[in-house]
């Protein structure tokens, strides 16, 4: 995926978890990934997210769940004009799940669903640089769409954001690209619910699974091997799900 200042309009550029108790979630992820927070739990009045830092770099955020939003991790896509982007979502067969609201004092966002019903966020972020580190230990590595209708997804994200879908030889997934930059993957969801999977880079998937369980989370998929990676899927204590994969 693009890094730092390379998040053009239409690119995924941030990940965020919506939580019933942001302070408790911050404690879990601080212990799991070693994150610190520049607005510590108990200091924020809830109107702005808790910004997670990995080695001093902004990498994710934790926000109070609005009414009706279950604990979850969602990807943010950068847009230049939120009102126009919402109209384009509707035109492409998607829907708005939540009216626009202030993400912080300088940007606005909305939670939407694509044409197959999979939720994600769009955010008019101005000069926000987005995730300051990706693909490093303890940071967001990739977003993968698990879809039961890949063709519909191709049409929706192509129409709204200019994404292209490219097959990967001998791989069970295809690659999303924007301006020839890899920005994510798409895989057949099979018998699992459709969703955007948020994947974090870790040094040891087995240790992460053990730590998640000991911290009150759950291991949903025990560590397993794929080509070049060892992976696991975990849920935090509130039930928000992430995937974790080893990196060299």
Automatic annotation (TrEMBL):
Stored SUPFAM superfamilies: Glyoxalase/Bleomycin resistance protein/Dihydroxybiphenyl dioxygenase
Gene3D superfamilies: 2,3-Dihydroxybiphenyl 1,2-Dioxygenase, domain 1 (3.10.180.10)
Classification via PROSITE patterns: VOC
One Pfam family it belongs to: Glyoxalase_6
InterPro entries listed in its UniProt record: Anthracycline_SecMetBiosynth (IPR052164), Glyas_Bleomycin-R_OHBP_Dase (IPR029068), Glyoxalase_6 (IPR041581), VOC_core (IPR037523)
Alphabetical list of PANTHER family matching this protein: GB|AAF24581.1, GLYOXALASE-RELATED
Protein name (database record): Uncharacterized protein
Protein source organism: Brevibacterium aurantiacum
């Amino acid at each position: 995926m693009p890094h730092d200042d390379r998040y053009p309009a239409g690119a995924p550029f941030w990940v965020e978890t919506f939580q019933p108790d942001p302070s408790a979630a911050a404690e879990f992820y601080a212990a799991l990934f070693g994150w610190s927070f520049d607005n510590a739990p108990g200091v924020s009045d809830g109107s702005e997210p808790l910004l997670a830092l990995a080695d001093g770099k902004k990498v994710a955020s934790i926000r109070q769940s609005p009414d009706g939003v279950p604990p979850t991790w969602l990807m943010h896509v950068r847009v230049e004009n939120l009102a126009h982007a919402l109209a384009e979502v509707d035109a492409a067969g998607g829907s708005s799940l939540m009216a626009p609201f202030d993400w912080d004092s300088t940007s606005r966002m909305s939670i939407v669903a694509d044409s197959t019903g999979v939720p994600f966020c769009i955010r008019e972020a101005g000069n926000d640089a987005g995730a300051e580190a990706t693909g490093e230990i303890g940071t967001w590595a990739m977003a993968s769409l698990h879809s039961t209708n890949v063709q519909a997804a191709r049409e929706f994200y192509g129409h709204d954001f200019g994404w292209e879908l490219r097959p990967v030889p001998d791989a069970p997934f295809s690659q999303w690209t924007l301006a020839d930059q890899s920005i994510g993957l798409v895989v057949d969801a099979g018998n699992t619910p459709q969703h955007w999977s948020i994947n974090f880079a870790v040094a040891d998937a087995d240790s992460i699974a053990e730590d998640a369980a000991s911290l009150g989370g759950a291991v949903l998929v025990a560590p397993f091997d794929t080509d070049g990676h060892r992976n696991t899927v975990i849920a935090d204590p509130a039930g928000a799900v992430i995937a974790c994969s080893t990196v060299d």
